[in-house]
Amino acid sequence: MIARTTGAAIRGILVALLVLTPALYLPVTSTNGTEIVVFLAILAFILTFAEYNSAFPSFIEFRDAPPVNRLRFVGLFSMVTFLTLICKNGYAPTQLTTFSYSVGLAVANVVDFPYSPVRLIVLMLPADASAPLVELVRITASIAYVAALVTIASFAYAVKLKGWPTGNGAFNVWTNLPLFDPTKGGDVVNRLQRDGRLNICIGVLLPFLIPAVIKLLTNFANPISLSNPQTLIWTMSAWAFLPASMIMRGMATLRIAGLIVEKRRAYSTSETAQAA
Q1: pTM listed for this prediction
Q2: Which tens digit of pLDDT belongs to each residue from 191-245?
């Protein structure tokens, strides 16, 4: 009980720190903005603590199947921290922020090529956007996208080479997939495989579709202003992290479906041997 409560509190503090990171390092634009960020941090702490302190799952998936959520958190935290340092370089440059900006520029020169998701993000900007803003968006989008790819690759390594989730004991579908109802109808394996493939397809397409949709919506509504550094950080992080999270979920569900197929095959072989 004490260990579970302590672990839930630590997770809640880390998530709250993630929410507060851009506001702690970047200039405050308004008092209301500070109050909103503090409120969101407190809300994130309460939700995370309540989820991990409870014996019954609510909405967070794979909470007892590390390292899925750990990789998600590390990827998002690294993304937000790096983007914060890059944005801070324009206000209070230091050796660390200058180094982060230089690394971001080098990454952008590699991943910003025609028809890439980063190029589409840059083309999403209005025609009157300033050159420094375009360059900043280009660099932050590149870093966010590469961080998302590294997160996906890390989970693929855990699945393919480490055999996730077999190293963590028995996989409890109810605890780790609380939103999945195995009794809803149809074969569980087929449903898991369909959901997994759908999540991977959507995750791959989203980085390309989101800029296109935003560009179309600018004809009917005011575009998102990325001149505010905190808005820029969270927009780029959401654009890169949400598709990566969906791809990881798809990989996880396909892996679980494969394990169920293996269990069925082993059970069928055992029954055949006993009958013989």
Answers
A1: 0.91
A2: 899 999 999 999 999 999 998 888 887 777 666 778 888 889 999 999 999 999 9
Task: Return the structure tokens found at 79.
Answer: 């993304």
- The greatest distance separating any two alpha carbons of the chain, rounded to the nearest whole angstrom, comes to 78
Contacts of 8 by beta carbon, 8 Å cutoff, 6+ apart? 48, 49, 50, 51, 52, 53
Yes or no: say if 127 and 165 are a contact pair by the CB < 8 Å rule: no
Q: Rounded CA gap, 189 and 173, in Å?
A: 12
48: Cα separation from own chain's centroid: 16
Q: Tell me the HSE value of 182 on the side-chain side, using a 13 A CA sphere.
A: 13
First vs last C-alpha separation in the chain: 49
What does the alpha-carbon distance between residue 190 and residue 260 come to, in Å, rounded to a whole number? 11
